[in-house]
Amino acid sequence: MPESPADKAAMADASTRLPLNGITVLDLTLARAGPTAVRHFADWGANVIRIEPPTEEAEGVTGRRHGSDFQNLHRNKRCITLNLKTPEGHAAFMKLAKTADVVLENMRAAVKHRLKVSYEDVKAVNPRIVYGSISGFGQDGPYGPRAGVDQIAQGMGGLMSITGEPGRGPMRVGIPIDDLTAGNLLALGCMMAVFDRERTGVGRWVTTSLLEAQIFMLDFQGSRWLMDKEVAGQAGNDHPTGIPTGVFPTSDGHINIAASSSRVFTRFCEAIGRPDWLTKPGWTSQGERSKNRKEINAAISEITATRPANHWIELFETNGIPCGPIYSIDQVFADPQVKHLGMATKMQSPFVGETEVVASAINISGFDKSIRRYTPDAGEHQHEIMKSVGYTDAEIADMKAKGII
Questions:
Q1: 285-298, pLDDT tens digit by residue?
Q2: I need a surface site. Which of 61, 85, 243, 281 has the fewest CB within 10 A?
């Protein structure tokens, strides 16, 4: 369909802006969960001001400042330092908050109140503020005061009890899935609150926690208990309910195969030359196959082990059977589809040189998600940001001399 003049104008406008242009975010976050939330705002055009203490920790949870983890988390931001424990530092924060749209933090629940930078404190000077908080276990309740980290929440949220091979004991997931999920959910919640504020003029306090995020991510495993009172256990590489779905050997490694539905299982049996399996007692329904998973997996493995992975992937793809290789991290980024998707994106930095970071997984037609700003050094934008809220050169110099910034 030909583009209308309005479409062309919108595309031209999109080339010079991003969806969140005009939104100012104050970033008080630490570690990973909070910065994950902020990264969505930063990547999509918000004016993100990261606020750090004047004394920088040599190596935090996410490593050194110029290390890969920190650089990947904090691109597309500007940075200042403020000692929020001093009256002058607190006053400077409040000046920034007065004209901000969003404040994001993931301190222990009580810390923001002690520093007097809580939702209530900011709301007093800016009733339109959207204030986002991540905690370990919630802002209140019996565990509210506790500190929480990803692995603790993986354990308390049930994930470690269903991860890994049966009989091997609890196993953590290989990524900080709670941190990442909580950050993603907070960003989503805050953007909904900003959207609502544009209609109502009312700001909101948006909260989530590592524990809530993990329980949300239990999804069907959670509903199995809530509705059916079935406690899921560890299933290793097998899907908990859909068989056959899992890892199978090949002559040169392993592949994943997912052929659990009746339709796909039929195609699978025919593709590997075993149509007799379709009428084999105990193999004819998903429920029966789940009970006989060991026997089924062993029979499939005996066949797949005779040929290389590419043979099976080509055969199964041709027959509409979901399958795929099992990559190491370097192989992931070498895959032609991953390259096509642009999941490694370039960043030019005066501190680490030309490098690559992980791209946003969100794509919005007409918008460019290239990295606009390299990850800043501590306090790199101090002067320009302080000046923007009315501080003079002399006042900035005095605060620096006193260690406030």
A1: 988 998 999 999 99
A2: 281
